[in-house]
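BUG: 3D viewer hangs when loading the predicted structure for this chain

Environment: internal workstation, default settings.
Expected: structure renders.
Actual: progress bar stalls at 90%.

Input used:
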Amino acid sequence: MALIYKKEGRVATFTINRPEAFNAMNSETYKELSDALIDFKDDDNLWVGIVTGAGDRAFCAGADIKTMLPAIKLTKDQPWVDPPSLYRGLNLWKPVIAAVNGLALGGGLELALGCDIKIASENAVFGLPEVTLGLIPGWGGTQRLPRAIPVALAAEMILTGKKIDAKEAYRIGLVSKVVSLADLMKTSMETAEALLKAGPLAVRAAKKAMMLGLGEPLQRGLEIERDMIDYITHTEDFTEGTTAFVEKRKPEFKAK
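Structure tokens produced before the viewer hung:
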């Protein structure tokens, strides 16, 4: 099984399970991840996702050079032939956490960039080394990395293939936390639990407003935000959340 997909309460965990290949992404893994993400998206009982890699050496070392790259070459003039995923093609407004446990290179870093909150273990290494193979990042790296960190730093990583460690990733804002490998999943689950305390529809609306507003002029972004306010204030969760606050009790959100 190239991917382990688990559901625990309202949290889904996606574990890339090719530790012998540093969890490199092959066609099988890509398809299994896509199928699991679609299931997560459509399952009303699941509110938060966590993506990680098997073992203690790698989150994902990118595309499998022997199998995936030749397949990509065959899809010339078919840019959307890949199954929908966090890379592209999947509008997923539920929050997703990347628990980066080691190498996150090429498609691995791009996978983490497709997640909303990134938590790294101390042994994590990040990079987009594609240019050293005569290639360019093709799963969102050239677009998402300059949106995640200062453009000058993104340009150095993309154009030279430079790798950075977890400490540097935290310093430049690529990840929100760095913890020991032993504490990585515990910390990621605690973050998931913090997300579960919030109104699930509000979290999704906030994510949608944030992501759709990126790259838009401020005025358009404010209009998107207003649209989300109009939507969220007509939900049952909004009524429950505000009522619970007045009554000084914990809200019981239902994602309705």
